[in-house]
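Postdoc handover notes: sequence design on the structure in folder B. Input tokens:
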């Protein structure tokens, strides 16, 4: 009997050790994925800094406001239930410093609410003022945004198509500036940088601005300066119309049709001209559920495009090795949230197995490289990048940045479950609707926007409950780790607990209960 008991204990111990090694392998693979991606981002940072060192001043050419030789442009405004911002974007486009007879405005309206009437009224008023403007209202919403863009193509009279989402407020010289770059016949797209009209609205919008600034400086500009593949960001840019057709048109089999079409166009040999110093202001989501919906669409669409385009990128002979490497990294970047979530879950049993495995926790210190890389890139994008800055950042601006960055990290971790689900669905090919991100026309911090509750979510999703559960699990892991002296993951688990709790709290707070 004693021998059987001893054998059972030995087998149980061996199973524990085997499970520990399995968790170690999973964690190592997940963090390696994050680290490799971060190191490729460092290469983009190098390209970005190198270019700006060699080109300290960037100036863009422009057409004169009354130049009758300016190309004719169709401005398309796709929208769906945007009653708070629909009239605003139409007025901003109508205010372009561009010959009135050299552009037309097409509102691609799939709305089912008051937006339809608001748009119809404003269109009638602008027509009386001599503008070429058309209200194209669909009732089926087939293909969502991609479907609306594709259906409207035959009605576009311009050889160039500018696209703006409803939450943008383009600068008056947008068309004058972007259109000059199409004199190069290989230019398919001119993309401008997103700016944020309500970045100071709340901590949520400040953190979004911090992250988006990375994409629109180091990432997009770095790729542009390094002759790598970029992406059209779906808005605030202009397309050469014939390239859309040549590249296969707008396709609705992914939720990020912009990334899909822009990659197909560049693989054909066309290029994107990125104007880092020309900003197009836009409104950031002000409620957590809207942000999560936007993140879900971007991450699922990115995974769908990885499934669709990786083979095409790998097999083409029109890209060199570095271009392919970065293109693949860009397509797989959306998997970072999945890697983070896998690392988070596997770290709990691993934290209590280190001692039994006889492995030093320093073995995994390589993952800190990724943290330093993200910090360096974020610092450059938000502090040292000379966007609209005429003087160097002050000491307190730098201090505030690091405070924001320390808040950004756990919040990003807290979104890992939601975004991991999106990535898995995308990789599996699961079809889902295009859920637009509601905007409320708010640009100040007076909370007026969030009080406009027509577009707020109305029920708690199961993922929100799961996020609350994850917050409790990681909180327990922190307590147990401190009590047992297993401190290897205490900081990591603390950040995860705070991140999941914060995401869960605001997901519930921003519901429409009334």
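Designed sequence:
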């Amino acid at each position: 009997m004693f021998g059987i008991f001893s054998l059972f204990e030995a087998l149980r111990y061996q199973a524990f050790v085997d499970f520990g090694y399995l968790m170690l392998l999973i964690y190592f693979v997940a963090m390696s994925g994050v680290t490799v991606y971060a190191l490729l981002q460092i290469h983009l940072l190098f390209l970005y800094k190198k270019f700006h060192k060699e080109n300290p001043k960037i100036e863009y050419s422009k057409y004169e406001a009354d130049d009758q030789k300016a190309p004719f442009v169709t401005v398309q405004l796709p929208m769906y239930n945007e009653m708070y911002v629909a009239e605003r974007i139409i007025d901003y486009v109508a205010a372009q410093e561009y010959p009135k007879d050299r552009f037309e405005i097409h509102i691609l309206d799939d709305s089912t609410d008051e937006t339809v009437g608001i748009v119809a009224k404003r269109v009638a008023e602008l027509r009386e003022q001599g503008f070429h403007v058309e209200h194209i209202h669909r009732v089926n919403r087939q293909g969502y945004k991609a479907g609306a863009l594709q259906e409207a193509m035959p009605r576009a009279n311009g050889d160039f198509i500018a696209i703006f989402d409803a939450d943008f407020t383009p600068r008056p010289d947008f068309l004058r500036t972007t259109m000059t770059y199409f004199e190069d016949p290989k230019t398919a797209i001119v993309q401008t940088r997103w700016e944020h009209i309500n970045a100071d609205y709340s901590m949520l919008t400040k953190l979004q601005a911090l992250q988006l600034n990375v994409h629109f400086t180091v990432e997009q500009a770095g790729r542009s300066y390094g002759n790598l593949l970029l992406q059209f960001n779906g808005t605030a840019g202009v397309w050469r119309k014939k390239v859309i057709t040549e590249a296969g048109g707008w396709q609705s089999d992914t939720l990020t049709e912009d990334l899909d079409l822009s990659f197909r166009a560049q693989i054909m040999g066309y290029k994107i001209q990125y104007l880092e110093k020309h900003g197009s202001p836009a409104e950031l989501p002000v409620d957590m559920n809207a942000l999560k919906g936007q993140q879900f669409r971007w991450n699922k669409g990115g995974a769908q495009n990885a499934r669709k385009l990786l083979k095409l990128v790998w097999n083409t002979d029109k890209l060199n090795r570095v271009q392919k490497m970065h293109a693949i990294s860009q397509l797989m970047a959306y998997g970072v949230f999945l890697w983070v979530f896998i690392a988070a879950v596997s770290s709990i049993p691993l934290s209590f197995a280190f001692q039994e495995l006889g492995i030093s926790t320093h073995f995994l210190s390589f993952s800190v490289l990724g943290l330093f890389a993200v910090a360096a890139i974020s610092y450059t994008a938000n502090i040292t990048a000379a966007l609209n800055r005429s003087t160097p950042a002050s000491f307190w601006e730098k201090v505030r940045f690091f405070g924001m960055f320390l808040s950004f990290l756990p919040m990003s971790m807290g979104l890992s479950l939601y975004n991991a689900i999106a990535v898995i669905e995308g990789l599996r090919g699961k079809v889902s609707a295009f859920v637009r991100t509601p905007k409320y026309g708010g640009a100040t911090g007076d909370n007026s926007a969030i009080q406009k509750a027509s577009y707020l979510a109305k029920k708690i999703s199961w993922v929100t409950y799961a996020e609350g559960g994850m917050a409790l699990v990681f909180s327990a892991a922190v307590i147990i780790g401190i009590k047992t002296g297993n401190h290897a993951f205490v900081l990591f688990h603390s950040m995860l607990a705070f991140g999941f709790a914060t995401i869960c709290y605001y997901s519930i707070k921003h519901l429409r209960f009334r």
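Context for whoever picks this up: The chain has two domains: 20-62+194-228+285-306+336-514, 73-193+229-284+307-333. Don't rerun without checking with the PI first.
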